[in-house]
Write a structure and sequence with these properties.
- This protein has 173 residues and is an all-beta fold.
- The chain folds into two domains: 1-83, no CATH class; 94-172, Immunoglobulin-like.
- Helix content is 0%, strand content 38%.
- It is built from no helices and nine strands.
- The strands form two sheets. Strands 4, 5, 6, 7, 8 and 9 form a six-stranded antiparallel beta sheet that branches. The protein has a three-stranded antiparallel beta sheet with strand order 1-2-3, with no helix packed on it.
- Residues 86-95 have low confidence and may be disordered.
Length: 173
C-alpha cells in the first residue's frame, strides 16, 4: 500500500492462500484525509516473488480520500497491470525525487546518490522483514553490497537528515 500524496510505501500484507472467493485483507496504516494505492498480485508460477504479467497476475486499486475505514471491492478479471513498471535503469520511482538509485535491477551492489544528506537506509523483503538497516550515514553517496541478498523484489527505504522518507522497489537479479 502506498500513500498517493507522498508516494511513501506503507504496508505489505502476504496471504499464503485464499480458500474462497470472498475474503478480507486488513491494514491499519490509513489516515483520514489521504488517498491510497493498493497493488497486489497472485504468484501463479510459485517462485515466491513478483513477475510481470502474464506470468503472475497483478492488479492496482486506488482509494478515494479516506474519511475512516476504506473498503475496496475487487472482482477477478484479466485486466492485469505491471505493478512494478517503474523498475529499471534510467527510470525513477516518483517517491525518489532528488535521489538516484542504480543499477535497478541490481546484481551484487546498489549505488545511491542524493541531493540531501542521507541519515538511514533499510531494505525490506516483500513480507516486511528488514534485511539491512544502516544508521548515522551522513552521506550524499552510498554503495551497498547485495551479495548476501537473494534474487527477488525488495523495498529500499531511505531517510534524509531533513526527515524525508523515500521508498523504492529494488529488483535483485
Amino acid at each position: 500500500m502506498r500513500d498517493l500524496t507522498s508516494g511513501t510505501y506503507l504496508d505489505t500484507v502476504v496471504l499464503e492462500s485464499i480458500v474462497e472467493a470472498n475474503f478480507d485483507v486488513e491494514s491499519h496504516v490509513l489516515e483520514p484525509g489521504k488517498s491510497y494505492r493498493v497493488d497486489f498480485f497472485a504468484d501463479h508460477n510459485g517462485n515466491s516473488s513478483y513477475d510481470a504479467p502474464p506470468t503472475d497476475h497483478a492488479w492496482r486499486l486506488e482509494s478515494g480520500v479516506a474519511t475512516g475505514d476504506v473498503d475496496l471491492d475487487f472482482e477477478h478479471n484479466t485486466n492485469f497491470t505491471d505493478i512494478f513498471l517503474n523498475t529499471g535503469i534510467g527510470r525513477m520511482d516518483p517517491g525518489l525525487v532528488g535521489l538516484k538509485l542504480y543499477p535497478n535491477p541490481a546484481g551484487g551492489f546498489i549505488s545511491i546518490e542524493s541531493e540531501t544528506e542521507l541519515e538511514t537506509l533499510s531494505l525490506f523483503d516483500v513480507t516486511g522483514s528488514r534485511l539491512i538497516h544502516l544508521t548515522g550515514l551522513k552521506s550524499l553517496q552510498l554503495t551497498i553490497s547485495l551479495e548476501e541478498i537473494h534474487t527477488g523484489i525488495y523495498f529500499l527505504t531511505l531517510r534524509t537528515i531533513d526527515k524525508q522518507v523515500k521508498t523504492s522497489r529494488l529488483v535483485k537479479q
